[in-house]
Specification:
Length: 175
């Protein structure tokens, strides 16, 4: 009697990553600056701060998983400008920045109305300019959790993410 292979979550993520890599690997004949992606639509981004993981999802299927760095004070929700925290909540990707100081970047729609009200109650500004981005162009990165509240991946990874994710994609950031 032969055993049926069991597909674990780890295998599913690996298979999704393989399919995404294959979709991104298409040749770019003119050597254009940006990668192209023709695979399944990324319908949501899930970020889990405690485990330092980010998942690109297509419906309920994880397509890619990334190890991430966060703000320099990563525990807790972002309340005010300069606190070094990465926000927690539900947002959308609201812009793409091909000229980022951090290779490429995707803007996150922080602050929302609740974030602004929370900061106003403290008599402070909520801050803004929260992105998913690559590494700094400098070589003197301070180590893990070095951003001012953004989500950082490697430059190679942000190239893939930039190609795969569209403006308007929902992103959920959890503790």
């Amino acid at each position: 009697m032969t055993k049926k292979p069991v597909l674990t979550r780890r295998h599913a993520i690996g298979l999704g990553a393989g399919a995404a890599a294959a979709a991104l690997s298409g040749c770019n004949p003119r050597g254009a600056r940006f990668k192209r992606y023709s695979g399944p639509e990324v319908t949501r981004i899930l970020v889990f701060k405690e485990s330092r993981k980010m998942y690109l999802m297509s419906a309920r299927t994880p397509m890619r998983m990334f190890d991430i760095d966060l703000g320099f004070a990563p525990v807790g929700d972002k309340k005010v400008e300069g606190d070094g925290k990465t926000p927690e909540g539900d947002y959308v990707i609201d812009r793409k920045n091909p000229d980022s100081l951090f290779h490429l970047s995707l803007g996150i729609s922080y602050p929302n109305a609740a974030d602004r009200a929370e900061a106003a109650a403290l008599g402070k500004a909520p801050g803004g300019d929260i992105f998913i981005h690559g590494g700094p162009r400098r070589k003197d990165k301070a180590g893990p959790d070095w951003t001012w509240g953004c989500i950082a991946v490697t430059n190679g990874e942000i190239e893939d993410i930039y190609a795969m994710v569209q403006v308007g994609t929902p992103i959920s950031i959890r503790a």
